[in-house]
TrEMBL record, chain A:
NCBIfam families: trpA. The alpha subunit is responsible for the aldol cleavage of indoleglycerol phosphate to indole and glyceraldehyde 3-phosphate. It comes from the Bacteria. It catalyses: (1S,2R)-1-C-(indol-3-yl)glycerol 3-phosphate + L-serine = D-glyceraldehyde 3-phosphate + L-tryptophan + H2O. Pathway: Amino-acid biosynthesis; L-tryptophan biosynthesis; L-tryptophan from chorismate: step 5/5. This is Tryptophan synthase alpha chain. Its EC number is 4.2.1.20. The active site is at E34 (proton acceptor), D45 (proton acceptor). One of its GO terms (molecular function) is tryptophan synthase activity. Belongs to the TrpA family. Keywords: Amino-acid biosynthesis, Aromatic amino acid biosynthesis, Lyase, Tryptophan biosynthesis. The lineage of its organism: Bacteria, Bacillati, Bacillota, Bacilli, Bacillales.
From TrEMBL, chain B:
It comes from Anoxybacillus mongoliensis. This is Tryptophan synthase beta chain. The beta subunit is responsible for the synthesis of L-tryptophan from indole and L-serine. CDD domains: Trp-synth_B. Pathway: Amino-acid biosynthesis; L-tryptophan biosynthesis; L-tryptophan from chorismate: step 5/5. Belongs to the TrpB family. Its cofactor is pyridoxal 5'-phosphate. GO terms for cellular component: cytoplasm. Tetramer of two alpha and two beta chains. One of its GO terms (molecular function) is tryptophan synthase activity. NCBIfam families: trpB (TIGR00263). Its EC number is 4.2.1.20.
Amino acid sequence: MKHFIPFIVAGDPCEEVTIDLVIALEQAGATILELGVPYSDPLADGPIIQRAASRALKNGMTLTRALELIGQMRKKGVKIPIIVFTYYNPVLQLGEERFFALAQQNGASGVLIPDLPFEESEHMRILGDTYGIPYISLVAPTSHERIAMIASQAQSFLYCVSSLGVTGIRDSLPAELHEFLKQVKLYSRVPVVVGFGISTAEQVDRLQHVCDGIVIGSAIVQKIEQLQHQLNDVHTRSNALIAFSQYVVSLIEPLKRVGKNESQTTTETTKTVSTGQTD
Amino acid sequence: MLTLPNERGRFGMFGGKFVPETLMRPLADIERQLHEALADPSFHAEYMHHLYEYSGRPTALTFAKNLTERLGGAKMYFKREDLNHTGAHKINNAIGQALLAKRMGKRKIIAETGAGQHGVAAATVAARFGMECKVFMGEEDVKRQALNVFRMKLLGAQVIPVTSGNRTLKDATNEAIRYWVEHCDDHFYMIGSVVGPHPYPMMVREFQRIIGEEAREQMLKVEGKLPNTIIACVGGGSNAIGMFHPFLEDDVECIGVEAAGKGVHTTEHAATITKGTKGVIHGSLTYVLQDEHGQITEPYSISAGLDYPGVGPEHAYLAHIGRVRYESVTDEEAIAAVQMTAETEGIIPAIESAHALAKAFQIAPLRPKHETILVCLSGRGDKDVQTVMNYLEGDER
């Protein structure tokens, strides 16, 4: 099976529920988790994830607490690799070394920083190597001649931004996407995953043949937003979690269908991704 | 100092390009084309042509005779950027960037604005050069600056109210960048200050240097020597960099004045260098107003043009190496300076510029009469009349 990489925001709708949601996602078939750290100025995010970040910030979520939350997930038995998705400024304030030390202590498996491009990330990549926390690189449709350079340093997996723009739900993905993914795969030694805008089972179905994994963020975060009140209320939580799981399963149903014939690649990629895991 | 930024866009440790990967190539394109343009005499000639015959440059250097006599110290001169077309220095940069956009074959302009001054400048040059213009403006500012919103619309621009975050300049800038990420193939992002990712801080400086270059010549002509002290207000810091830069290697004291709002001891100020810490905002490593967890905090100043939680990375550098001193002035002091300049010299300055004036009025009496102080009067106060009125009436009540 190809990778299914859901993205959710730590602390949305609250810390406790974030752990439940991650457990539900793992059971639903997530192979890697991207855990978003809320930020006041999320430049790469559209309205859905911006709103989730605001909710989480109101709940007092911080980078440190998000890292500790990963530790709690590990204690509750979450086994899949967890990638910390954070903007650079909170890392800078915490201190880069301290960030990696905490990430390692709490069982994080990688870090992805959307506003720290290749040229600015050398120090973080070196520290990542030291602490065994891979630094995930991104390529975009505008990267062109930059793809070879970025791919040469890619660790764990290479994240392809599907289209121009910020995160969000898109009705259609660009026609050039397949060509772009094929090109990236030529240069990449690690699995190539695609994200930004992917929000339906149909899109998942069409894309899975040209990549090694699919990231789904806004669609899942929107579902959490819709269910937030039921999720926050202990009496309705378990039903809301079931509804959430059903939605996620329906989104990735095409992946499972194909997965039965392609199990060989999975073992390889999971191995690569898990390098940074400490549990 | 003058050769900065380096090839990585850094002024010392400050600056850089902290942006999503999608923007790295568009930024590299702008950088390449900017270097070509700046090395091309015909580009410079065209830029100067528009500054002279459209914006009305050179702007005057006014000796503030009455204020000088009243304060009884150093002679004060005002560099009159308020006399530019559209009423502020912002047009210098807007013309420069519009010409670069044209050179790059881009006919669609995006701009962010707080009070609306840069938005109006962008809308103006877009009209003049036959370009489409979208201005992102926080919903709060749209309400507070209804007149400037209408000015932009009158000039044919589309004003897009921004409802994210606190709905002010910071959020308008975020939204402009988000829109640019999506439309970078055919849109040119015209940033209004010396902020943002490389090469913007350098580009905007190059298009604002004219302020200091002219003032230098004018001071030499009138006084036969360089000024002893130069003072300019700093929000993002474009008028200040434009004014300071041609004097940085001279023995001239430079003072940048930030907005202290209700006081730097309160949480309601915009004194980024005075009170901020190192951080990343809008693509650049600089001083930032933020909490201990790295979340950007909301600044405050009565002056919308200074109400920004970051500052140009070159200012951060100049502060760090001690070449420029950064101080701050409160709302109250700035409003008093507006009144004093209006009553004494017959000039109503923008509240932004009044921050620089207030500092000059504090310093002038302490300096000997043979010394000169040059103040950048960056914009006119027509836009602020309502704000000043509300403030003074509120005060009396």
